[in-house]
Amino acid sequence: MMIGKWIRSLLILSLPLLLLSLPPSSLQALSPGEEIPPQIFVGQKIPNCNLLDMEVALEHCATQLYTLLQDASKTVLIFYRGYWSSDCRRQFADLRARFSEFQEKGAQIVGVSVDDPLRVAEFGRSLEKEYLLQANRCAEGQLIKLPLHLVSDNTREATRKLGIGEEDPRLGLIARPTTILLDREGKIHWLYVGKSPNDHPSTDEILQRLT
Prior knowledge:
- This protein is of the alpha+beta class.
- The chain has a single domain (about 30-210), classed as 3-Layer(aba) Sandwich (Glutaredoxin), CATH 3.40.30.10.
- The chain is about 35% helix and about 20% strand.
- The chain is built from seven helices and nine strands, in the order H-E-E-H-E-H-H-E-H-E-H-E-E-E-E-H.
- The protein starts with a helix and ends with a helix.
- Residues about 5-35 have low confidence and may be disordered.
């Protein structure tokens, strides 16, 4: 009995030393919503990645990010949480209302979410319909097409490569609100990674960065 008690006491005393000898990664795991340092920085080239284009979503056709960058001299790449987010809807509604100002600066807007491509397409149509109704420009039978470019990262490839993801307890890996200013070569000229769902730059601030 005395030997058994002695062994138990030795194990209890040794446990803290064992835990201290383990690497940090084995002692803690990322919690839902915990901040992950981004893998991208101003001045470097953004990693290329495959995205599903809402224009060809039904064919499940992937397009590369670098291909999208060739459509304008400047690209405002915006990762948003999803179609279900009221913060994202307000943000993109404002971007749509002032889209002509981006065009004057030679810039395009590309929105990316981990939503299913069909959800992305529906989000775009609803945004454009809302804009046309508010501007009294919605005619019966009119083709509703959002001029902002929305694409899907439903494989999470881009979110992981850029290191801008966070784990949501219900939705899995989603992107934190992130705004990146790029040129045609993919060089990052400005970067903003939000720390909360509504932490994103205003439209005014983005336009100022495009000077």
